[in-house]
Amino acid sequence: MDLVLDVLSWALILNGAVFAIIGGIGMLRLPDMFARMHGAGIIDTMGMISIFLGLALQAGFTMVTVKLVMIVLMVLYTGPTATHALARAALHAGVLPLLSERRAAPDTTDTDATDTREDA
Q1: Residue 23 lies in a domain
Q2: 52 lies in some domain
Q3: 3-state secondary structure of 93
Q4: Structure pTM?
Q5: Rounded distance between C-alpha atoms, residue 18 and residue 51, angstroms
Q6: Does residue 10 lie within any of the structural domains?
Q7: Which of 45, 51, 44, 47 is nearest to 9 (CA)?
Q8: Cβ atoms < 10 Å from Cβ of 53
Q9: pLDDT per residue as tens digits for the range 96-120
């Protein structure tokens, strides 16, 4: 039984590390602040939960596990709230998502939109 718990906990820790790396790459590679917040959310949720669940399996049912669960619950509660507050503050400051800037620009490559009729 100990071998199964060890393998499962190390798999969860490795899974969390992979999600943390993917989220970190996303924070570096994504184009604007709103997309980068998505990368940070991946680190917050999948990375942190997987790592802490693996650590809780390693620790067994002790006070350490209770503390890890409390940390997970606190981050799950405060993470989306902080992300929402940050996005709202950015919108109030005038920072627009990159996608909305693309939609606002008129499409000049559409050849069907040009009217070739002559008015008499």
Answers
A1: yes
A2: yes
A3: coil
A4: 0.70
A5: 10
A6: yes
A7: 51
A8: 20
A9: 888 765 555 555 665 555 555 555 5
Structure tokens at 76: 């799950």
Q: Which of 47, 3, 56, 4 has its CA nearest to residue 26?
A: 47
Six-digit token pair at 70? 């409390």
Domain count for the chain, please give it. 1
Per-residue pLDDT tens digits for 45-84:
889 999 999 999 998 889 999 999 999 999 989 988 998 9
| Domain presence at residue 54 | yes
Distance CA 34, CA 31 (A): 9
The dihedral sign for the CA sequence 88, 89, 92, 95: negative
Burial class (CB in 10 A: 0-12, 13-18, 19+), 12: buried
- Contact in structure between 44 and 78 (CB atoms under 8 Å): no
The DSSP output letter for 44 is I
